[in-house]
Every structure is written in structure tokens, then in C-alpha cells.
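Inputs:
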Amino acid sequence: MEKTICLLPGDGIGPEILDQGALVMDAAVKKNGHTFHYTKGLIGGAAIDATGSSLPEETIAACKASDAVFLAAVGGPKWDNLAPEKRPERGLLAIRRELGLFANLRPAMLLPELAGACLLRPDIAQKGLDLIVVRELTGDIYFGEPRGLEKQDGSRVGFNTMIYSEEEIVRIAHVAFKTARQRRRKVCSVDKSNVLETSRLWKEVVTEVHKEYADVELSHLYVDNAAMQLVRDPSQFDVILTGNIFGDILSDEASVITGSLGMLPSASMGAQGPGLFEPVHGSAPDIAGQDKANPLATILSAAMLLRLGLHMPEEAAMIEKAVDKTLADGYRTGDIMEAGKKAVGCQEMGKLVVERL
Ligand code: NAD
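Outputs:
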């Protein structure tokens, strides 16, 4: 198989971690006789410095011409004083819009090797944690109109509109049920249907779409209860399906309890065209250029790219197993270091994973 991947290194530790992610991905696919071609695009602060725009036209074209987009991270203190619409992070929002990415998939898992980093009580952590949050990314109160900040009768009011159309809910529900079919076949849909009409429609439509997926179990939780259950017993969840604002909060909660920011991958998918795969963390300017960054979130994003973006589950599993093995052999970057383990830098960590493929 031949595929083209567009690499977007971005800023800070971005280039270092993406180098390792691409190395591991390339080694995995080569082992099975596939050939990947790579293009590179500027995004974020690096793109602002070179072109004045956080997402130049050439980058958009290169992404659209690819089979998948592999991004590291953007941003840094150098650009912090720019006006909001000129900041590096705008490039991220713009590429998601350009590629029509409406589904954000964020797994949170607790690798047995890193159980010590988990923020939960040991008896809860021991039950394990392996879930994925499927978050709608382009609708909801973040984009609903009307919105504004104005004076009414001499007093300031701020307002936003929470809105979902049936079509938007249908397409994200399909993503969640299909994702569950590749996992433990359980979807928990999260809403606030006891209070919000938007959520009542959400629940109704998800229940209707579920009729096409009799092999998947569907449950519903109110968002306040879901937030509580995530810390009480996250082992009960497989796929959590939710809207943009609830998903924003729950996906951060789910990932932070694992305690290892440098380990978390993510995927954003559209109806067609290339998906975008990136680590959850930012550009870590405090450790950029020092070979200290943990490349594993990026390497695990490569596994998501292969599984979800290119339907190559075998190569994805090879990468995930190689990461597990590297950790089991005791290698750690600084952010996940524990007593008695072997400290390695970013490049060495990538090399160790390649050796274990
Ligand atoms: P951050 O995720 O970059 O860093 C938070 C802390 O975690 C830092 O101490 C950092 O050193 C550490 N860290 C993060 N990733 C690591 C890794 N792979 N290995 C080892 N340590 C790691 O968040 P921040 O400091 O709030 O933001 C820094 C910049 O990144 C800001 O400009 C922010 O806007 C941007 N940002 C970008 C994205 C993205 O590109 N998707 C996401 C979040 C933040």
C-alpha cells in the first residue's frame, strides 16, 4: 500500500516529537511492506514567522492532498502577545475547519506500567482505565448563534446559544457506535436532558441511531453524574459519546486522571478526507530543544492514524505493543520517571520503540 502523510511539526517540542512519531510509524509500515510518502507543512508560530499566517495556503493544500495529517503542537511565549486572531492556536482551529473535522476521539488509558502516576486511589486505579471520549467538535454552544456581550437596560449581559441539529447528532453517533465495534461494544451517551432541550434531542437521536447497532450496548448519563463516575469508577466506560462543551470538559478530566500528559494521543475525523492525529499536550516551550520531551503521545497518535485514518489495525497494534514493551523494559522520559527506572531522552525513546516493533 502507498500513502501520503502530511507532517505538521509546529512549535516548541513539536519538531522533536514528530520526528520520533514519523520514524516509528515508517518503521512499522515498512515491516509489512507498505510505502509512505511524507510532505511537510508550516503551522502555528513557525508559520507566522515564515509567512505571517498561522495556516498558510500551501499547508492547507498539502493537508488536503494527503491521506492523513500528523500534527505535533503549536504555540509558545514568543507569540503570546499577538492579538487573539493572530495567535498560533488559530492555525489549529482553521485546519480543523478546512478539513471538516467534526469528531474528536480521545482515548484515556492507564498502562499497568504507569499505574503509579494515576491520580485515583490505588483500589480504583487497579480496576483499570481504558476508555475513549468521542466529542462532537463543530457545533453546540461554542458555535451557536446568536451570541454576544451587550448592555440591556443599563446592565451587561453575555449570551450564547446551545444548538444541535439532528444531522449533526446522527453523524457523531455513527462515529461512536463504529468506534465501539472496534473495542468492547459499549457506548455511554452523556447529556443534560433533564434540563436542556438540546440534550433531549441528543438523547432521542442517539437512541434512534442505536437501532442500527444492535451488537453495541447503549447507556445514558447526565453530565454531572458522568463527571462523578469518571473518578469513582472509570473502568465502567468504553466509549463516551458527547457534545462539544461536555466533551471538552470530560475528555480533559478523563485524561488527567491517568497522570501522564506525555502519553495521550488524539484523533479528529471528518465525513471524508484526511483525519488529523496529534498528541493532547501542547508545545512545552519550557523543555523545547533539550531532547527531554516524551514522544510517546505522538507515537501513540501514529497508531491512531494507522488504525482510524488508514484502516491498518495490525500496524497500529504493533506500535502500541512496542510502546508497552519499552515501558515494561523500564525506560522513562523525565515526565514519567520513577525511582529504579532508566532515564532516556526523546530520541532514545523513539529508537527503543523502533527496536521493539
Ligand atoms: P503544555 O502541554 O505544552 O505543557 C504543560 C506541562 O507539561 C509543561 O511543564 C511541559 O513541559 C509538560 N509537557 C507537555 N508535553 C510534554 C511531553 N511530551 N513530554 C514531557 N513533558 C511535557 O501546556 P502549556 O504549557 O499550557 O502550553 C504551552 C504552549 O502550548 C502554549 O502556547 C499553548 O497555547 C500551547 N498548546 C498547544 C496545544 C496544541 O497544539 N494542541 C495544546 C495545548 C497547549
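Remarks. Residues 1-110+264-357 form a domain with the Isopropylmalate Dehydrogenase fold (CATH 3.40.718.10). The radius of gyration is 20 Å.
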